[in-house]
C-alpha cells in the first residue's frame, strides 16, 4: 500500500536518473519496475495502444474534430469517474451515481420551470440535493457499517423510482419541460455546456473541466493530508482511525464528492439537451466504476490514482467512438468493452505482481 | 464514534445555502420568459362518462421506465378508462418473463379484460392461453402485429413496424435522399430492428444501421457525431424515437454535416423542431390512440359485443406523417403530452 503514497506522477515526469538510495537498508528496484508498479501505468499503455490501433484502423480519427468528439464522450464519463475513483480508493463505491446525475438534472429543470424562476435557482437547489444524496449515502454507510454495495443499491433503486414518479407527478409527463427560453439559461449553458474554438476545431468545455478536475484530484491525493486520509481509510479503516484519521468525515465527504460530480454532469446534460427524460442514467454507474477499475483503482480500496481513471474514461470514449469511426459493426461493442475491462484488470494484476516481486 | 468530526460544522452549510436560496426566491429572481406561467392550461380530452357498471381492465406493457413514448400510451388508456367508467390497472416490465407474470397477476385478479403488448410474443403465449381459459378477453397493442392472431387475441391496435419503415423509406426517396443512417437506441429490440429493415427495403439509396446507448444522451450525441464525420455522404439521419432526433440535431451541427433528420414517434419538443425546420418529419404511430382504443375496445366488447377491425384485421394507428405542412394541427395536443 505504501507504494501509492509517495510515488511521483510517473507517467508524465520520469524521475531523474542517478537518484539512488545509498544507506543500504532498502535495495532500490530498477526504474522500469518501479514505474510498472504504479497503478496507472498499465492503463496508460492500454490507452496508447487503443489510440494507436484506431489511428491506423480508422482514418477519420486522425482529424482534430474527431478527437474533440472522442474526448467529449470521454469527459462526460471521466468527470464522474474521478470522484467515483476517489471513493473507491477510500474503500467504498456508489451504485447510485448514474441515476443521481439524472436526479440532479430533473431537480434543476423542474424547480425552475414549475416556479417560473431563474434557472440558477434550480441549479443551486440541485447542487444541494446532490450533495444531500451523497451525504445520506455516506452517513448510512458509516453509521450502519453495511457494505456500500447494499446501501447505494438501495439509493439507486429509490432514485430511479423517485426520478420517474416525481417527474410524472410534477410535469404530468415523464420528461421535463424545455427550459431553454428561461432567464439564466444562456449563462448556465455557457458555464456547463459551451464549446470554444481551437484551430478550427470545436472543443467542448467539459473536456477542460475534466482535465482540471483530474489535476486537482491528483494534487489532493498526492500532496494533501486529505489525500492521505483517503488512502488510509481505504486501506484499513480501523488502523486509520487509531492513528487519528477522521474516518467518518473522509468517507462522507467522498460520497458528497460523487454527489458534486453527479450535479456537474447533470447540469451539463440539462443545459445541452434542454429537457431530461426521467428513465435515463441507468447502467451508467457501472461505466463510471469500470473506468475507475480500468484506471487501476482496486475494488477493495486503498490503492489507485486520479490520473488512471482519466485514461480509463479515455479508453471508453476511444473504443466506443473508434468503432463508429472505423465503420465497423457495433453489435460487438459491449463484448469488446468487456474484453478490454478484463484485459486491463489482468494486465494491471500481472504487472503489479511482477513489478513488486523482490 | 467520531461525532466530533470536522463534518459537524458543514452540516450547517446546506441549511445556510437553502436559506440563501429561499432569500433569492423572495428577492424575485423569477424568470420573465418560459416556465410554468407561460404554459397554457389546456384541459385533456373529455367526453363525459359512461353510465355502464364499472369494469376492471389491466394494461400490461413492456415499457421501460421514464420513456416519453409509453407515457403517451398510458395517457390514452387513462382517458378511455375515465370516459368508460373503467378501473385501469397499469403495469409494465421490459423483461418478457416478468411481463408474463404481470399478466398472470391480472388473471388472478379476475379482471374483465386485458390489453397487452407483444414485444416478445413467444414468452407470452402460455399466459395468454390461460387468460382465454379464464374467459377474459385479451386485446393486443403497439407491438406484435404479425403475431396477435396466432396467439388468439381478439383485436389489435398498432402500427406494422415494417410497413412504417417502408413508408419512411418511400418518403426518403421522394425527398431525394441518397444515403441514410438508421439509429437504433436499444440493441436487440425487434420492433426497432423491423423499422430500420423496412426503411432499407423501400429506400432506393443505401442505409446503414448505427447503434447508440439510449440511456446515455451525451453518448448518443457523440456517437451520431462520429458517424456523420466518418461518412460525409450521409444525407439523412433516421432516428427511432423523438428524444434521439432532437439530440441528432446537435450532432449534426457538431459534425458540420448537412444531413437532414427524420424520426419515428413524436413528442412535444419534436413538434416545435419540425415547426422550426430543424427536423424534417416524423412518422407518428399515435401511441395515445393505441392506449385509448385498447381500453375502449374492451369496454365496447363487454357492453355491446363489438369487434374493432372486424376481428380479422389489425386496427392500424400509423404511419401518420407529421411534417411542416400539418404540424400546427398537432402541436397543441403534443404540448399536453398526449400526441
Q: Main sheet of chain B?
A: 6 strands, parallel
From the helix content, strand content and strand pairing of chain B, which structural class follows?
A: alpha/beta
CATH superfamily caption of the largest domain in chain B: Response regulator
Number of helices of chain B: 12
Nearest-angstrom radius of gyration of chain B?
Answer: 23 Å
Q: Order of helices and strands of chain B, N to C?
A: HHEHEHEHEEHEHEHEHEHEHEEH
Instruction: Tell me the number of strands of chain B.
Output: 12
Total of domains of chain A: 1
Under CATH, the topology of the largest domain in chain B can be stated as: Rossmann fold
Based on CA atoms alone, the radius of gyration of chain A comes out at 21 Å
How many strands appear in the DSSP assignment of chain A? 2
- In percent terms, what proportion of residues of chain A is strand? under 5%
Portion in helices of chain B:
40-55%
Low-confidence stretches of chain B: 1-9
How is the largest sheet of chain A built, in terms of strand order?
1-2
Give the strand content of chain B: 15-25%
Write the CATH architecture name of the largest domain in chain B.
3-Layer(aba) Sandwich
Order of helices and strands of chain A: HHHHHHHHEEHHHHHHH
Amino-to-carboxy terminus distance of chain B:
57 Å
User: Which geometry of chain A do the CA atoms define?
Assistant: globular
In DSSP terms, counting alpha (H) and pi (I) runs of 4 or more, how many helices of chain A? 15
Q: How does this model look, in words?
A:
Chain A: One of its GO terms (cellular component) is plasma membrane. Chain A: Its main location: membrane. The complex is a heterodimer of chains A (358) and B (339). Chain A is mainly α and 358 residues long. Chain A has a single domain, classed as ABC transporter involved in vitamin B12 uptake, BtuC (Orthogonal Bundle). Chain A has 15 helices and 2 strands. Chain A has a two-stranded antiparallel sheet. In chain A, helix 3 packs parallel to helix 14, helix 4 packs across helix 10 and helix 5 crosses helix 12. Chain A starts with a helix and ends with a helix. In chain A, 55% of the residues are buried. By secondary structure, chain B is an alpha/beta fold. Chain B has 2 domains: 127 residues, Response regulator (Rossmann fold), CATH 3.40.50; 124 residues, Response regulator (Rossmann fold, 3-Layer(aba) Sandwich). The radius of gyration of chain B is 23 Å and the shape is globular. The chains are: A mainly alpha (358), B alpha/beta (339). At the A-B interface, helix 4, helix 5, helix 6, helix 7 and helix 12 of A face helix 1, helix 2, helix 3, helix 8 and helix 9 of B.
